[in-house]
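In response to reviewer comment 3 from the previous cycle, which asked for concrete evidence that the modeling workflow produces usable outputs, we include below a single protein chain processed end to end. The sequence was submitted unchanged, and the resulting structure tokens are shown without manual editing.
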Amino acid sequence: SYRPEGWVQHGMEKATRMRPLAEKYGLSMLQFASIWNLSHPAVESVVPTFVQEAHDGARPIEDKIREYAKLPNVRFTPEEVAQVAAIGDNTGCMTLKGASKRHAVSERPDEWPMRPELLELAGRYGLTSEW
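The workflow returned the following structure tokens.
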């Protein structure tokens, strides 16, 4: 899928800022991501997608599964969840797909103007209309 230039590097910078929290709990970054998801009240389980990367030094997928199997039974505090959410906030980092109030002309076939019923649906889930 499309990502603008510098997107991966920007994401790695964010991951670096999250690493101290992972270290506080003795978590790998795979475990960190899972615990962050599990720290939300509505989340009961997490099933990550394991990918075998094709480059020199890539970890075997079996190693990743063994690492995940050692996931500790800890949860982040609400303050820690908010801290990670603030670091990971990507608002405005790239043109969004889907319905948007900023839509004027289709740059892509998967982009369309905002409709009142979509705004109503977004409001039910606490989403603002400013995207």
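The first strand starts at residue 98 and ends at 100. We consider this sufficient to address the reviewer's concern, and the full set will be provided in the supplementary archive.
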